[in-house]
Amino acid sequence: MTDLTTSEAERPAMQKPVIDVSGVDLTFQTNDGPIHALKDVNLEINKGDFVSFIGPSGCGKTTLLRCIAGLETPTGGTLTVNGLSPNEARKARSYGYVFQAAGLYPWRTIGGNVKLPLEIMGFSKEEQIRRVRKVLELVDLEGFEKKYPWQLSGGMQQRASIARALAFDADILLMDEPFGALDEIVRDHLNEQVLKLWARTEKTIAFVTHSIPEAVYLSTKIVVMSPRPGRITDIIESPLPKERPLDIRDSAEFIEIAHRVRDGLRAGHEG
Amino acid sequence: MNRSDTQFERIAYPVGFGLLVLLLWEISVRVFGISPALLPAPSAIGAAIAGSVPILWGDWVQTVIKGAMNGLWMGGIAGVALALVIDRFAFLKQGLMPVANFFAALPIVGLAPIMVMWFGFDWHSKAAVVAIMVFFPMLVNTLGGLAATDSMQRDLMRTYSAGHIATLLKLRIPAALPFVFNGLKIATSLALIGAIVAEYFGSPIRGMGFRITTEMGRLATDMVWAEIFISALTGTALYGLVALIEKRVTFWHPSQRG
């Protein structure tokens, strides 16, 4: 359970982390007794980082993301987002959240779904139209505005849900295994798109996955977690360049990082 | 079945079978010489309908429009409204649901005379009976619909910091509509039954239930059957109308997409 992060020295002294997790504990009380979902989690996420949480099911990666989003409340430790509590950050609309399933409302068109957060947040009509057009273009869904979700493939639905999370231009994007249900080829394609999107929008992204290649391909920082109790076992700063073609996955560097992630996962299992 | 039926077949089959039943009925009555008091022939019923259009129309307006429809909207709105209130305040569910269940168990036959005593002989007492009858299915179905959203959809609304009203309007009410329409379909059939049966316990000298009881007393069964035929026709039409609106409104639901 050693924290191997080396970023402290590299980070400009003035910059405060966007997401600061320190000593976070979370215990769920269930009928079968307490479940220790997170234990002493420490993590800093800086502006523009692409952080992946990887680990087997039950390691608390989704729970940690939900804590950051203010959807769960830690039972111990402190967690700040943009210097605010997660709940305040949520009310300040600091982040967009992409869930495991696209979860588009079937009674709304794609455009209508992307518009949903804008309506709730009270954007003007013209602004809604402008933003819907902009984010649909960002995820390559121009021309699908008037289609209904069920008329689209799973990958396109998930892209629409990303557009929905981007619509109100929060500077943090939280993604909970967004491509877990999609096949390998679609997933590759969407990973590429997410990287492009990240480069274009310069958002801070926290991404939950259980795929090692996905984590290594996408991230600047990989957080390896392990279960019972959910905790961080390794934090890896990726030396890969920001520009990443798909075939970077065959490079020696990539394979080395993937190895380290795998070792981390294995160590967590034995420990 | 390896091909879907054409529009023509969809209509032709049931109409054909219906005509066949009528034909067998007509033949049986004639061949076996059944007394018209026991079972009038379809032709006799048809003649009764054709011969008393103004009476049947007056009965229909009294029972269907004034009794059933008024009761339907009153009970329907009350059911949906109470569902929204119960949904908002969880403690009400524990207190009100047993009471609502109790109401649902009230026998309409016992209730109708009381309503006549309270609200008079005219349609108001019939509407009251109908309202009580449709209230419960509307309440239960709306409540079920409001609970139908999954946690992910509600979490999504939370990430937008959407309040109760916004969540209700943007997510939970649209998601509840297929359930509400199910309730409405049950309610329309109940409304018709309620309005007719309530008239058995006292009514002005018109109305389908009134006509059925009085004509039965005079052994004029052709008129009784005429009223039965018209109420069946009305019930089918109302159900079809609700189903049509449902198709328009909840076009997105898997059961409606076809």
Automatic annotation (TrEMBL), chain A:
Keyword Nucleotide-binding included in the entry's annotation: yes
Q: What class of enzyme is it?
A: hydrolase
InterPro entries hit by this protein = AAA+_ATPase, ABC_transporter-like_ATP-bd, ABC_transporter-like_CS, ABC_transporter_ATP-bind, P-loop_NTPase
State if ATP-binding is listed as a keyword: yes
- Enumerate the UniProt keywords alphabetically: ATP-binding, Hydrolase, Nucleotide-binding, Transport
Top-rank taxon, per record: Bacteria
Q: What is its EC number?
A: 3.6.3.36
* UniProt-recorded Gene Ontology molecular function terms: ATP binding; ATP hydrolysis activity
**Domain ABC transporter span(s) in chain numbering:** 21-252
Family, as annotated: Belongs to the ABC transporter superfamily.
The record ties this protein, via PANTHER family, to:
ALIPHATIC SULFONATES IMPORT ATP-BINDING PROTEIN SSUB, TAURINE IMPORT ATP-BINDING PROTEIN-RELATED
UniProt name for this protein: Taurine import ATP-binding protein TauB
Protein's gene? tauB
Automatic annotation (TrEMBL), chain B:
Mind telling me which residue stretches traverse the membrane in this protein?
12-32, 44-65, 71-90, 102-121, 127-148, 179-203, 223-245
Q: Which residues form the ABC transmembrane type-1 domain?
A: 76-250
User: One of this protein's Pfam families, by short name?
Assistant: BPD_transp_1
Which CDD domains does this entry report, sorted A to Z?
TM_PBP2
Q: Where in or outside the cell?
A: Cell membrane
Q: Listed GO cellular component terms?
A: plasma membrane
Q: Name one GO biological process term.
A: transmembrane transport
- Tell me which UniProt keywords the record has, alphabetically: Cell membrane, Membrane, Transmembrane, Transmembrane helix, Transport
Q: How does it sit in the membrane?
A: Multi-pass membrane protein
Matching entries from PANTHER family are given as: ABC TRANSPORTER PERMEASE PROTEIN, ALKANE SULFONATE ABC TRANSPORTER-RELATED, MEMBRANE SUBUNIT
Q: What is this protein called?
A: Putative aliphatic sulfonates transport permease protein SsuC
| Organism, scientific name | Pacificibacter marinus
Gene name, Swiss-Prot/TrEMBL? ssuC_4
